[in-house]
Design a protein that fits this description.
Number of domains: 3
Order of helices and strands: EEEEEEHEHHHHHHHHHHHHHHHHHH
Strand content: 5-15%
Radius of gyration: 27 Å
Number of helices: 19
Strand order of the largest sheet: 5-6-3-2-1-4-7
Helix content: 40-55%
Number of strands: 7
Distance between the termini: 60 Å
Largest sheet: 7 strands, mixed
Structural class: alpha+beta
Length: 376
């Protein structure tokens, strides 16, 4: 892993590109600072802008070009070693900042045990708090798999994670994941941070309530239930996630059928099916007639997740429901396993609606059905 300046980029053939990289910093590996190496990558999408421009600085993960690869033929006359950009040309960052490079260099310089222990966790927290977005997201991936996070981070590392959650300048996805991770790990100060972020007008209000819902004493039952009536649909969605009492089933049915927000209706209906499974099928079937396409699709998919139990009810919707409901039911059958696929074959041939037949055939991986009885 090195950083450097792109020079002399050029096209090799229909998809292959190469350039020289003047290395100005080494984070890991054998490529030395001050050297210029030849790098290669492929551009498979003709409409996409070429990923490297001359003069731009990049942080890149390089792998030696395998001698036996088809790529090697492109460089049969190369005078020096050629490297390919890792992860099929995707392992790079444009214009890496000093904070990211410094924290990443310290992290990579650690031994394996240090990376797995407290020093590694704290360096990752630094990257989450102030590093490049892509690296911060990777750091979150690593920390989310730690089982000893609170102890490993300590107060200093925990403060960095909460700093990321509180920072208005950080990407929303980073802030949300950092706050959720802090709540799951029970970090000191997380409740206070979540309460501050839950105030009206906060862009993190819904995420803050999700975090409070994770904490053992973050919300009272009354506070959690009040979210179901909140004017903000995002908070009603959070309320649905927290409404785990079986006695709330009728409330969720009502929200699934009549809430003003399509997102809330879809969430309530899908949640009913996840929690009550076959017992909720009859409650959910009317939602396949919802006026919003995304709601219909979400409920169809959720019904399909129930497998065999949903197949006959979905087939009845295809036979007797509206065209839109039938298309949503087809999505459910496509998600219901082998028997659902058998039903789709028949629907793709015999259903009177061309739109439904097309949906069934597309779900089977086929094109639209051909017209019969006509010559051109």
């Amino acid at each position: 892993m090195v950083s450097g300046i792109i020079q002399s980029s050029r096209k090799l053939d229909a998809t292959g590109w190469t350039a020289e990289l003047a290395v100005d910093r080494k984070l890991l590996g054998d490529v030395q600072v001050g050297t210029t190496v030849q790098i290669a990558w492929e551009e498979l999408a003709a409409s996409r802008q070429v990923r490297f421009d001359d003069g731009e600085r990049v942080l890149v993960v390089l792998e030696p070009l395998p001698a036996q690869s088809l790529w090697a033929r492109r460089f049969a006359d190369a005078q020096k070693r050629v490297y390919v950009v890792a992860r099929n040309g995707e392992a790079f960052l444009r214009s890496p900042d000093a904070t990211t490079l410094n924290s990443l260099e310290h992290y990579l310089a650690m031994g394996r045990e240090a990376r797995k222990g407290a020093p590694g966790a704290r360096r990752l927290a630094e990257l989450i708090a102030s590093g490049h977005r892509a690296i911060a997201m990777e750091a979150l991936d690593v920390l989310e798999n730690r089982t000893d996070l609170a102890a490993a981070l300590g107060d200093d590392g925990g403060s960095l994670l909460l700093q990321a959650a509180r920072s208005e300048g950080r990407d929303h996805a980073i802030r949300a994941r950092a706050l959720r991770l802090a709540a799951k790990s029970g970090l000191r100060g997380v409740k206070e941070a979540a309460l501050a972020l839950a105030q009206p007008g906060s862009s993190m209000r819904a995420e803050a309530y999700r975090a409070l819902g994770i904490l053992p004493h973050g919300l009272t039952p009354q506070e959690a239930e009040a979210l179901l009536d909140d004017p903000d649909p995002e908070l009603r969605v959070v309320g649905i996630a927290l409404a785990t009492d079986p006695a709330k089933r009728e409330r969720l049915i009502k929200m699934a059928r009549s809430d003003d927000s399509p997102t809330v209706r879809a969430t309530a209906g899908a949640t009913l099916l996840v929690r009550h499974r076959e017992q909720a099928i009859q409650d959910a079937l009317p939602l396949l007639e919802d006026k919003d396409r995304n709601v219909r699709a979400a409920i169809g998919h959720a019904l399909g997740e129930l497998g065999d139990a949903a197949i006959e009810p979905l087939k009845r919707v295809v036979e007797t429901g509206s065209e839109d409901a039938a298309v949503a039911a087809v999505l459910g059958l496509a998600n219901a396993g082998a028997e659902g696929g058998v039903a789709l074959v028949s629907i793709g041939h015999l259903h009177p609606s061309e739109k439904v037949r097309t949906a069934a055939n597309l779900a089977l991986g086929k094109g639209p059905p051909k017209a019969h009885g006509h010559t051109h």
